[in-house]
Amino acid sequence: MCGVCYNTTMETRIVAFDVGDKRIGVAYSDPFGSYAVPGETYFRTGNFSADVKAVAAIAKLRNAQAIVCGLPLNADGTESVQTQKTRRFAEALKAETAIPVAFEDERYTTLAARRDLVASGVSAKRDKRKKAVDSLAATYILEAYLAEIKREREHMSTEMKEESNDYEDENIVELVDDDGNTFRFEHLLTFEYRNEWYVALTQIDGENAEEVAEDEDDEGEEVAIYHLVGEGEDEHLETIEDDELLDEVFAEFTAQYEDFEDADEAAELEPDGE
């Protein structure tokens, strides 16, 4: 494997907004669109146009490829005054930025956020607690949206596998190493271990990939695991130099991958011996 640091060139980062009259909660995904992270809370100024521009700037700062706005529906699914306010804000956002804007049902996200903050024992001043609720609600909105995308991809994958054994395009990422060389990988899983985030990939082209493909006696598919560090434009993947840590992270990946995919398939995976 070339280099020790990779920058992602094909991102699927998504930003979610929980639009309220006074505050707008923010959440964003990792570069592979696998998990949601609570972000800042934007306090509205009372100037509609200024608020739209500010929220569009947040999406741009996060390098978002898509925006999701929570849609506050009534319990029976009908629309309310707040629904129309959110739709108006989203339409203005569409006009302000070229980033696609979608909606996600948010009927129960704020209640769930408040419940989880209480369950976790969060005790803070009222304004800080409200900020936490807003960002957590936005996180739940984004998680629901990502889960929906995952279901759609799994459905499409099932149909595609019946016709072809080709790689799924949505799981393919291109990474650029320190020397400017580009490599294509299949993204297997983004996962957390000890409050740090890691990405498991398997190379599908390049010199190393060809060697693996030619070795018919290879015991299993090689997996390269990288540390996901930095934020925004500075976010990149770094190789794990500590062999003991790499073993621990690989064990965690295997355990999570068994739950996420197929246990038999996970048992055949082996770490890339860099």
Summed up:
The protein has seven helices and twelve strands. It has 274 residues and is α+β, with helices and mostly antiparallel strands. It has two domains: 14-153, Nucleotidyltransferase, domain 5 (2-Layer Sandwich), CATH 3.30.420.140; 181-271, no CATH class.
Q: What is the number of E strands?
A: 12
- Return the average pLDDT rounded to an integer: 77
Q: Under the CATH scheme, which architecture of the largest domain would be assigned?
A: 2-Layer Sandwich
Helix content: 40-55%
Instruction: Please describe the biggest sheet, giving its number of strands, its sense, and whether it closes into a barrel.
Output: 6 strands, antiparallel, barrel
Number of helices: 7
CATH class membership of the largest domain: Alpha Beta
Multimeric status of the protein: single chain
In spatial order, strands of the major sheet run 1-7-8-9-10-11
